[in-house]
Amino acid sequence: MPTIYHDISALRAALQPYRGQKNSQSGGLQRIALVPTMGNLHDGHLELVRIAKRHADVVVVSIFVNPTQFGVGEDFDSYPRTLDKDIAKLATVDADYVFAPSIDEMYPVLPPPTSVLAGDIAAQLCGQSRPGHFDGVGIVVSKLFNIVQPDVAVFGQKDYQQLAIIKQLVRDLSYSIEIIGAPIVRADDGLALSSRNQYLNATERQIAPVLHQELQRLAHRLKSDELSWQQTESLLAETYTRITNAGFTIDYLEIKTDELGSIVNYSASLNTEKFNIERKDLIILVAAWLGRARLLDNQLVTVNQPS
Ligand code: PAF
């Protein structure tokens, strides 16, 4: 069973002996990994822990439903809190420590007067429909990094924009932490695993894999066809309609460069200048509501430059 800590000072004391110690087998220094979560763990989270174990000697999993990343009217109050079950699941993957602080422990003053702003990258995609969300992620992840002081931290690629923002945070605040993006874990029918999938009723759960299927279909077309900008744009519009017809309300469906920096938004004004190399790694990103659940998914694709 992992050891559980609710206090910052107790966790720090428990981790102190690992710092600067040699790993007897490799001869290198022992490494600490952090897997930040909001709990209600599923196989996707457990895979993050497995990956962390391969990169470190000791793995800390944080479980904290972070109030600063939820907007007014969002599901902060109803977000599932299942600490005992989470701890039992973490025992099956040999997590060493669980850090499950209270809100007071994390935020002596709420909202905190100090902020970590995520900047332009946070203004797009999820940041547009969830203003302030990534600033909340930024501050809690910075605090977790300072509390745990890990050598490596593992985040899921399902939250692709969040991962990009965390890489930016590590760069800009000079954290000496290796960030690992873990591949999306899916159910057998292709639905990306998410704690929010449990908001789906039985009928919605049947429909939900359509999101992944449509992204795959679009990626396949983008990859296999020599498409003009216009064709690409209409293909995106067709995907939009197909997802909508399946019963989703789309928040966004966009194709961007894989860094999310230079934006290629086929559905708005086309920007060919930023897209001037022969082959390009792109990412298709979607957020869509199905009943009470807001589902995220994405698909990387390498395409020939549209002509
Ligand atoms: O991805 C999540 O579960 C959360 O956004 C994170 C990174 C744990 C911060 O609260």
Description:
By secondary structure, this protein is α/β, with parallel strands linked by helices. The protein folds into 2 domains: 3-182, HUPs (Rossmann fold), CATH 3.40.50.620; 195-302, Pantoate-beta-alanine ligase, C-terminal domain (Pantoate--beta-alanine Ligase, Chain: A,domain 2, 2-Layer Sandwich), CATH 3.30.1300.10. 35% of the residues lie in helices and 20% in strands. The protein has helices at 8-15, 43-55, 83-92, 103-106, 126-129, 133-148, 160-172, 202-207, 210-224, 229-246, and strands spanning 3-5, 32-37, 58-63, 97-99, 152-156, 178-182, 249-257, 279-290, 293-304. The strands form 2 sheets. It has a 6-stranded parallel sheet, with helices on both faces. It has a 3-stranded antiparallel sheet with strand order 7-8-9, with helices on one face. Helix 6 (133-148) crosses helix 7 and helix 9 packs antiparallel against helix 10 (229-246). The N and C termini lie far apart (57 Å). Mean pLDDT is 91; it is low at 262-278. It binds pantoate. The site of pantoate has 10 residues, from strand 2 and helix 6.
